[in-house]
Amino acid sequence: MIAEVSVIGAGLAGCEAAWRLAQEGINVRLYEMKPEKFTPAHKYRGFAELVCSNSLKAARLESAAGLLKYEMELLGSLTVPCAKENSVEAGGALAVDRERFSDAVTEKITSHPLIEIIGGEVTELPDGTVIIATGPLTSGAMADVIRELCGDGLSFYDAAAPIVTFDSLDKEKVFFASRYDRGDADYINCPMNKEEYLAFHEALIGAEKVQLKDFETHPFSVYEGCMPIEELARRGVDTMRFGPMKPVGIDDPRTGRRPYAVVQLRRENREGTLFNLVGFQTNLKFGEQKRVFSMIPGLGNAEFIRYGVMHRNTFINSPELLNADFSMRTRPEIFFAGQMTGVEGYMESAASGLIAGIAAARRIKGLEPLKLPADTMTGALSAYISDPFNSGKFQPMGANMGILPDIGVRIKDKKERYGAYAERAVKSLRSELERINYGEDNR
After folding, report:
1. For residue 394, what pLDDT is reported?
2. pLDDT tier at 296, thresholds 50, 70, 90
3. Rounded to an integer, what distance in angstroms lies between the CA atom of residue 128 and that of residue 321?
């Protein structure tokens, strides 16, 4: 019989899983409900749509995000090469033109001879091997299926930042620079003095928020990594200055001094006509966003082509349910992938789909499983979501050097220390891939 795997959801994780399986010679039925039905956050018809930020975080190898992407390429990633081919300038980060990125992934998936696209909403689990990658906004019917498999899930809220046009900015009040002059000066900086900052803080905490829909109101917990800016402001008058508005490493070239606070704008598209407000995820009403964010120097007459939104996000209690290869302990033919597993971030979600695809393919072929070393970023994330020790306090986790085992050597310089972690990780992963004969032809 010809092996076949069903992958539900054509987001980052689902596309990685489907691509990996197809590249291994396995037929894939990829289910995607767009464009027949959209979630509250998705608007674009293409696959692998980015709905929050357009940044895939740091590109340099001696960073957690950069190491993760490098490992993904070694494992045969689809999304990392597509991101590089459709990148926009963002200093030391890998940011993409989101529509071109989505189009590139969609073209790769739809043109693969072993991938069949099945349109429409999935309401019941297909037979055989299945990878569930329906995302944090899983539709009602599929959510019921997952609930039957996993029991009650946990909910938190994700938020997207506003986007403004470059032409509408007051260029006399802003300047281009990257923090610590790292990379090119690709970020637009809006400096604030103390008086401007305090007035902005007061307006922000007093602004009116969107009334959440019934399905979003219980339980209410906000994940720290995507905290709405107004919630951050309510934690204290200086909280934003130690978060997204921190001025450290940025000097205003007009004064030669560090601002009291600074709002950074990051390029949204290749052409540089659109910029998003970094760290300004929000649940304010649209009119309030226009009123309050226009107080930011340089944004007095800004044209907002998209306002920030806030939406539901759900993840399962993976440490009780999943193995390190993202398969279910009780139903090993069923895999989960993406943000619902508790990996937090675009590339982390994509990596989980990649790992699940590799695992499913090797199991179907009767091959030895891929055992991701604990000192790799992919291995550490896989261990985190599957460690029963975390089940009672499980929260989403993104790539970070803190989840890797200690290097065993004291290295004072942070960059050198992270470089040593990265060197060790790459060496370990290459060794494992050689051990199981996962060569260039597979990748």
Report:
1. 76
2. very high
3. 19
Radius of gyration, CA atoms only, the chain:
22
Helices (H) and strands (E) in the chain, counts: 12, 16
Taking CA 324 as the corner, what is the angle to CA 319 and CA 329, rounded to the nearest 5 degrees? 65
CATH number given to 4-153+316-435: 3.50.50.60
Q: Which of 50-64, 144-158, 261-275, 289-303 has the highest mean pLDDT?
A: 289-303
Whole-angstrom distance, CA of residue 169 vs CA of residue 189: 11
Give span(s): CATH 3.50.50.60, the chain.
Answer: 4-153+316-435
Tokens of 351: 């990596």
Residues of the chain with CATH 2.40.30.260: 160-312
pLDDT tens for each residue of 40-92: 666 778 999 998 789 999 999 999 999 999 999 999 999 999 999 999 998 88
Dihedrals φ, ψ of 74, to 5°?
Answer: -60, -30
Task: Give Cα separations from 256 to 183, 252, 259 (angstroms).
Answer: 20, 5, 9
What does pTM read for this prediction? 0.75
Tokens representing 199?
A: 């007035």
Spell out the CATH class of 160-312. mainly beta
The verdict on whether omega for the bond into residue 388 sits within 30 degrees of 0, i.e. cis, is: no
* Four-point Cα dihedral 33, 35, 77, 376, nearest 10: -60
Q: Cα dihedral sign for 52, 39, 30, 336?
A: positive
